[in-house]
């Protein structure tokens, strides 16, 4: 009697394997701090050609600290830091916390403020003893006719070339000085970008920081393209421009302003 071998194939295995692989993928993502919205997101991620990334808190540690402060002529460093910290204390920006922490470390008393306002992509301002204190980008102060002398301008360029972020402080139409902030690059950033390049993905940095600081960080990490001093609206525009060229674009960031459609 010849032995009879019966082989049974069931297509149900495929139906089980697909959702199981998706479930494992979602679980692995969660272990790495990545929330995957649905299965379609996993499928679309495989086709990504360009990754746009923020800088502060994404490529860097997101733990900035003040490393230098230079007051304008006739201004005390203590006044520069205390006034800047008083206004920045009302801001949610990570660089603002660095200024406040520096003032506290120096044992400075922060004056009371009123009329606080924040300008996206520009800076913050508030009144202290009736005078308007402005903290932010160079253009934010220059728009109010605050003159920045060549000596401090050159110092700012030097600091920015060292990948430090420079913010400016002014009182009414008088310059108070500059504050330089450093945010170390994450140890994993360079390896991550190299891995993305190995997969054929181009990396584009979009940051609100100044061009010199942005380019210094990009050069160290090997980033393909840099857009500096951009607003959330600019980031959306850059995403749309790449999509219009037929590229598949992903966005990486640490804040709601990086959640581009």
Task: Tell me what you see in this structure.
- With 261 residues, the protein is α/β, with parallel strands linked by helices.
- It folds into three domains: 1-36; 47-62 and 184-260, Rossmann fold; 65-182, Calcium-transporting ATPase, cytoplasmic domain N (3-Layer(aba) Sandwich), CATH 3.40.1110.
- 39% of the residues lie in helices and 22% in strands.
- It contains nine helices and ten strands.
- A six-stranded antiparallel β-sheet has the order 2-7-6-5-4-3. The chain has a four-stranded parallel β-sheet with strand order 9-8-1-10, with helices on both faces.
- Helix 3 packs across helix 4.
- The longest helix is centred in the first third of the chain and has 20 residues, at 12-31.
- The chain is elongated.
- The N and C termini lie far apart (69 Å).
**Which architecture of the largest domain per CATH?**
3-Layer(aba) Sandwich
Shape: elongated
Overall residue-averaged pLDDT value:
89
Give the end-to-end Cα distance, rounded to a whole number of Å: 69 Å
Name of the CATH homologous superfamily of the largest domain: Calcium-transporting ATPase, cytoplasmic domain N
Question: Can you tell me the CATH class of the largest domain?
Answer: Alpha Beta
Q: What about the largest sheet? A: 6 strands, antiparallel
Question: pLDDT under 50 segments (min length 5)?
Answer: none
What's the arrangement of strands in the largest beta sheet? 2-7-6-5-4-3
CATH topology type of the largest domain: Calcium-transporting ATPase, cytoplasmic domain N
Count of DSSP strands:
10
Number of helices: 9
Beta-strand content estimate: 15-25%
What is the number of independent domains?
A: 3
Structural class: alpha/beta
Run of helices and strands: HHEEHHEEEHHEEHEHEHE
Helix content: 25-40%
* CA-based gyration radius: 25 Å
